[in-house]
Design goal:
6-stranded mixed sheet; mainly beta
């Protein structure tokens, strides 16, 4: 049983304790926090806090997991790994087929926060390690839980991948798309994959490609099959191409320090219950000229002042977002980026104020530098539309990730045999 601290922003209550014996949300193979006390979950290659969680099979690479727990007492959390297929469905493999050592391990490293309001406990663990090791490539879910991995005990899940780099990938975005209506707007992917001889058997049935734009999964292209095969060369030449919205560079704000207001921050309010950061009002950019500038491709960089230890001295604030925008009928507007794990969920959904003609939203965030965008999700749809508010520009410096899977027959699973991360331009 866990004590949950429910926190809210300006004009909301803070530190209300309720008792609960389980979680209502079913566990999914996705990046989800199930426990309201868990904040700022980070999973990255140990060498770079802004990297994606990618391991090379047999390389000695390690990923690092870190998170904060707003509870008042420590817990002995455990974790395990779940192998998935190319579409992130749990594979049919048993754990002894893809893990060496133990099938679960404990998170024993933790620190209490210092001079932070509200207080929290910071946890970390790195893996693979001598206790738990991975022996097959593919998609994986990291599952963290109390006591047993039953759904009611899970506090968070995170995706990561293990790649054996055997295939080479050629990636390009031409200036002119096949469909001329997309010119200067959409980004069409030109893709070729070269595979070694061992993948010659049934390439159109066994080879599966997935393409992801920035950190989003809602608009990822799954189950891409080659249109032609010549020796070891696979070509993906669809009639209208593989097309993504161009979108726009990410918006950003810097709250690494609460001692000063960076350009995107209108006001910092310091109260007994904690901080509230009010951002300047955003506007619709869909009709504005494209402006080129560097961003983090939607990532969140968790960082406090240089004189602070971010892990345990970084403080939290309710960040208030406003968007001046006429109400969009039959659709919802979401704040999206690494700051909310790229999820189109209730926490990131904005509310419309008809009197002010604005959308409002707030997120509870640790000190850092953040990228975000506004995404429109029509009712009944699962893929968000970035173009209505952010615009649609071919020039946008989107980041693309290409995953190449090969279906093994014995045992049956999807090997991840190719992976690149590349820029649109």
């Amino acid at each position: 049983m866990r004590n949950f601290v429910l926190s809210c922003g300006l004009l909301f209550c803070f530190s209300i304790l309720i008792q609960t014996s389980g979680f209502s949300q079913p566990v999914q193979n996705s990046d989800i926090i199930y426990d309201e006390n868990i904040k700022t979950v980070q999973l990255y290659h140990k060498s770079d806090v802004l990297s994606d969680p990618v391991l090379r099979l047999g390389s000695g690479d390690q990923l690092h997991l870190a998170f904060d727990d707003m509870s008042a007492e420590t817990y002995r959390f455990k974790y395990t790994f779940i192998h998935c297929d190319a579409n992130w469905r749990t594979s049919s493999l048993e754990q002894n087929e893809y893990l060496n050592g133990y099938f679960e391990d404990e998170i024993i490293e933790y620190q209490f926060s210092l001079n932070a309001s509200p207080a929290y406990i910071h946890y970390d663990v790195s893996f693979p390690n001598p206790n738990i090791r991975i022996k097959l490539s593919g998609n994986y879910i990291l599952k963290v839980y109390l006591d047993t991995p039953d759904d009611e005990n899970v506090i968070l899940t995170r995706r990561f991948i293990v790649v054996e780099p055997l295939a080479s990938i050629e990636f390009n975005i031409p200036y002119y798309a096949k469909n001329l209506a997309y010119t200067r707007k959409k980004q069409q992917i030109e893709l070729n994959v070269s595979t070694p001889d061992l993948f010659n058997a049934e390439p159109q049935q066994r080879i599966n490609v997935v393409i992801q734009q920035n950190g989003r999964w809602d608009n990822a292209k799954f189950n891409l099959k080659p249109t032609s095969v010549m020796l070891n060369q696979l070509e993906y030449d669809y009639p209208d191409g593989i097309v993504f919205d161009g979108g726009n560079q990410f918006r950003d704000f810097d709250m690494k320090s609460f001692w000063y207001q960076s350009p995107r921050i209108r006001q910092i309010i310091n109260e007994d219950v904690g901080y509230t950061v009010v951002l300047h009002t955003d506007i619709n950019r869909s009709k504005k000229p494209y402006e080129s500038y560097e961003d983090l491709h939607g990532r969140a960089f968790i960082k406090a002042r240089n004189d602070q230890n971010t892990d345990i001295e970084g403080e939290y604030a309710w960040v208030e977002f406003t968007l001046k925008q006429p109400k969009i009928e039959n659709a919802d507007v979401y704040i999206v980026g690494g700051l909310n794990d790229w999820r189109l969920d209730e926490k990131s959904k904005m509310k419309y104020n008809s009197r002010m003609g604005m959308y409002h939203g707030d997120l509870f965030l640790k000190q850092g530098y953040y990228n975000y965008q506004y995404v429109v999700l029509p009712k009944g749809e699962t893929e968000g539309d970035v173009t209505q508010i952010e615009g649609d520009n071919w020039d946008t410096m989107n980041q693309y990730k290409v995953y190449v899977y090969y279906r093994e027959r014995v045992p049956e699973y999807d090997r991840l045999v190719g992976y690149i991360i590349t820029m649109a331009h």
